[in-house]
């Protein structure tokens, strides 16, 4: 009935507008005659029709999108997750793992996955956009099929059909700080999760289930986060992404000097229990630590074992990758929860402390750093800095760090991790070759139960000290052994005698360890000499490349003849090496220039 009514009204309107008298009244007789003259030309009619095709197409597309959006708003709920969110990887991994209709698609994407070839029923686990998470069974690369972008597919969850669509989107123009970067080149990946329902909390609970399942499978893992600073210069809600995960490391697997491990551990445990105490006194609830010392002394390994012990994850930050002070401050404000923030090798960063520099005519010269000292200080303990944080910094040379950065309040506890002492050497040996006592304190190890190992470790320490003292006198370099060097030496012999499969060769392995100590010390001495030579060449090149600094105004003529003594720091691997002065460097520069002239001739 209603259709018949509307159809009759349409015919009435069409009859009226098809009457010539209507157009004479609407346009006028003269205008109508002109239109008749040109409308009778087929070429003009075709051109007019073709010109309207794009508009008609655009209008049709707009109408379709409007109807689709209207349908989605009426019958569906959806959640869009961008790849800069920490929940992106859990959601992506779940939908990829649970999509069962990949074989029915005609056009898909292929990615590299890894699985156990002996298990035909095992489905390879691969994260679509994120980093592949290898397992102990990964050994053979296979092809993993996944739907293409903009291809909607469905999965089942608790009896509901969930529709998933992978897309990409560009940031809004107001978030772009660099006007010379095209917005189209900064598109990021997103996942749209949609369900036919009007219950958004239910869809949210489903997604939360996927996230919980992902992190529950990693409860006994140490998750490593890494900050991916944006290179395009546009603001991002979250720049931290999961870089991978590691097995929980035993706290006793790292051996420091006596009492130092327990000192740091007790300090962190007390800090974690004192949040209310900090807040009551108006003290910022954060704690900073600095581990400094030569390479190979276990700084990074200790942080990993400590994070495992206090059940926290690790967030790695590289200062050199930050674009500017704002990006660093934004990154530190978004550090994932329950993470230890780690800034490694902070002394290798070239700090700009605002000192005046001599202008150079070299147009290619650029600043080596992008973040100022004030930017770092404000990011760590400024007004907008991160609360409830534990920060660990590591370095080799503490003197290369601006004092303001490591003052109390920013760094509350400093720990020097030096070369190995007798306590460390003995405990490393026992934990290396006596797994039954790997969690036992050194004083509580029943040494009378293992007479062979007891005599070996005592003789090992004595021989290393005597041989190192002898070689030090010959090479004029005071030798010290790092924990990493001792572990590497013990590991070499353990692998040589295949102790993992033939533990009965332990006595032969111990004898080999004692017999090859001179070779071990000689290799250490060679490494120290190489480090000293490297530092020397680096200082020479620096002296040749840098212009002579402007001399300060001198009050009398005697000061003009005074020779400045500049100390070139030795590398951290050779703390007892002789210091070089500026006069020695000048002699080295002359030698290098003379060698270059001889090569040219």
From TrEMBL:
SMART domains: AAA (SM00382), BCS1_N (SM01024). Residues 285-421 form the AAA+ ATPase domain. It is found in: Mitochondrion inner membrane. PANTHER family: BCS1 AAA-TYPE ATPASE. One of its GO terms (cellular component) is mitochondrial inner membrane. It is a single-pass membrane protein. Keywords: Membrane, Mitochondrion, Mitochondrion inner membrane. The keyword NADP does not apply. This is AAA+ ATPase domain-containing protein. It comes from the Eukaryota. Belongs to the AAA ATPase family. BCS1 subfamily. One of its GO terms (molecular function) is ATP binding. Residues 51-254 form the BCS1 N-terminal domain. InterPro entries: AAA+_ATPase, ATPase_AAA_core, BCS1_N, Mitochondrial_chaperone_BCS1, P-loop_NTPase. Residues 591-601 have a biased composition (Basic and acidic residues). Residues 536-601 are annotated as: Disordered. The keyword Membrane applies.
């Amino acid at each position: 009935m209603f259709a018949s009514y509307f159809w009759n009204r349409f015919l009435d309107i069409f009859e009226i507008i098809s009457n010539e008298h209507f157009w004479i009244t609407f346009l006028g007789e003269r205008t109508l005659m002109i239109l008749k003259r040109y409308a009778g030309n087929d070429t003009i009619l075709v051109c007019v029709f073709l010109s309207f095709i794009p508009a008609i197409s655009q209008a049709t597309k707009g109408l379709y999108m409007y109807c689709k959006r209207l349908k989605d708003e009426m019958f569906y709920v959806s959640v869009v997750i961008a790849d800069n969110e920490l929940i992106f990887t859990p959601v992506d991994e779940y939908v990829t793992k649970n999509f069962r209709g990949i074989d029915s698609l005609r056009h898909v994407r292929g990615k590299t996955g890894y699985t156990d070839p002996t298990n035909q029923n095992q489905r390879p686990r691969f994260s679509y956009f994120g980093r592949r998470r290898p397992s102990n069974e990964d050994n053979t690369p296979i092809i993993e099929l996944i739907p293409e972008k903009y291809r909607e597919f469905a999965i089942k969850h608790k009896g509901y059909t969930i529709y998933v669509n992978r897309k990409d989107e560009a940031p809004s123009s107001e978030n772009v700080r660099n006007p010379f970067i095209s917005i189209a080149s900064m598109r990021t990946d997103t996942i749209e999760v949609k369900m036919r329902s009007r219950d958004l909390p239910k869809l949210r609970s489903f997604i939360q289930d996927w996230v919980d399942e992902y992190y529950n499978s990693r409860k006994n893992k140490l998750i490593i986060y890494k900050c991916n600073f944006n290179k395009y210069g546009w603001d991002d809600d979250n720049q931290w992404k999961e870089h991978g995960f590691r097995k929980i490391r035993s706290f006793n697997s790292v051996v420091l000097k006596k009492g130092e491990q327990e000192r740091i551990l007790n300090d962190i445990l007390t800090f974690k229990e004192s949040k209310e105490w900090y807040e009551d006194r108006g003290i910022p609830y954060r704690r900073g630590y600095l581990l400094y010392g030569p390479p190979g002394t276990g700084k990074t390994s200790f942080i990993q074992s400590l994070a495992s012990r206090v059940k926290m994850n690790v967030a790695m930050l590289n200062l050199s990758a930050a674009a500017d002070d704002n990006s660093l401050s934004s990154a530190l404000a978004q550090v994932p929860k329950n993470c230890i923030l780690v800034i490694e090798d902070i002394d290798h960063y070239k700090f700009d402390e605002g000192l005046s520099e001599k202008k150079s005519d070299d147009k290619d010269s650029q600043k080596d750093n992008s973040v100022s000292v004030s930017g770092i200080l404000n990011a760590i303990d400024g007004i907008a800095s991160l609360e409830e944080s534990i920060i660990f910094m590591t370095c080799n040379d503490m003197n290369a760090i601006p004092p303001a950065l490591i003052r109390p309040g920013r760094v509350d506890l400093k720990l020097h991790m030096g070369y190995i002492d007798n306590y460390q050497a003995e405990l490393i040996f026992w934990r290396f070759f006596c797994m039954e006592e790997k969690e036992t304190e050194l004083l509580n190890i029943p040494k009378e139960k293992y007479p062979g190992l007891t005599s070996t470790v005592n003789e090992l320490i004595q021989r290393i000290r005597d041989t190192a003292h002898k070689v030090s006198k010959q090479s004029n370099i005071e030798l010290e052994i790092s924990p990493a060097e001792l572990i590497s030496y013990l590991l070499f012999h353990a692998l040589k005698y295949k102790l993992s499969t033939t533990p009965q060769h332990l006595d032969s392995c111990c004898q080999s360890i004692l017999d090859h100590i001179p070779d071990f010390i000689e290799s250490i001495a060679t490494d120290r000499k190489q480090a000293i030579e490297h530092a020397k060449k680096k200082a020479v090149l620096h002296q040749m490349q840098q212009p002579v600094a402007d001399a300060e105004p001198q009050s009398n003529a005697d000061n003009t003849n005074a020779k400045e003594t500049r100390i070139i720091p030795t590398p951290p691997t050779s703390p007892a090496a002789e210091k070089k002065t500026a006069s020695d460097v000048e002699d080295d520069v002359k030698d290098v220039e003379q060698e270059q002239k001889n090569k040219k001739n």
